[in-house]
Amino acid sequence: MKIRHPEKINTSDKLSPLKPNWLKIRFKSGDNINSVKEIVKKNKVHTVCEEANCPNLSECWSKKHATFMIMGDTCTRACTFCNVKTGKPNYLDPFEPERVATSVSELGLSHVVITSVNRDDLKDNGLSHFLNTLKAIRYQSPQTTIEILTPDFMKNSRAANLIGKSAPDVFNHNLETVPRLYNEVRPGARYFTSLKLLNDIKSYNPKIFTKSGLMVGLGESKDEIIQVMDDLRAADVDFLTIGQYLQPTIKHHAVIDYITPELFNVYRDIAISKGFLLVSSSPFTRSSYHADEDFLKLKMKRNYKYQ
Q: Which of 173, 176, 221, 288 is the most exposed place for a label (fewest CB within 10 A)?
């Protein structure tokens, strides 16, 4: 039996404050949710919706939307915000890309998001597995558009070039938080490594939409968030998501602040003024939340921009 994050501690030495009214969730049920559960179970695939305890799971699954998590359910890093378990992963399953592609086909997805755990144990950080999954989906569902939400591929100097050639419709890599909090929140990652990956993807293939996300409420300041926006625009990132951090367990980093909906709107307006094609900023915003609708908005905004 695997234990979730036995080595993680509450790095802020504080318990999270009680959730405000605007963070109350209404859970949904229905046939679509059961259908998604059955397909996921039958094809033996993982979803980040379940593994990361996403607050939007019931809403997304009620619409038959799911975000698939490849390369197993065990991460080699121990980020203090994340509910995915940490440890020594199993060997890669070479048949997983086909099973994910089958799940996408059976769900009838017009747009799919594929993410993964970090696999620092692999020579290429798992990039080839990402690309094989992308190929399998395109073979089984050629009309489906694909968004990949990837780790930083820190050891793989060819990652940006190979991703550019494989041409996913959207490339997403989250900065997660401000540089000052990296050692505390995202140990093992490097802020400027992540920025460079986003910049290089766009340089290799300008047609790919690039996207990044931030959690707020971890103790960052408004000025720090604005500086991250500037850094992302310097890397020519198209789409920014900003959402409220929620503490998964008492062993994880505590919530320092619950950001008001009004401040989320301020962040959205500032980001739009800086030139992002699209900004999603709200308490429940997550990287793949409404990803299908947002992809259509991105295409429309790009077409309008260059008319």
A: 221
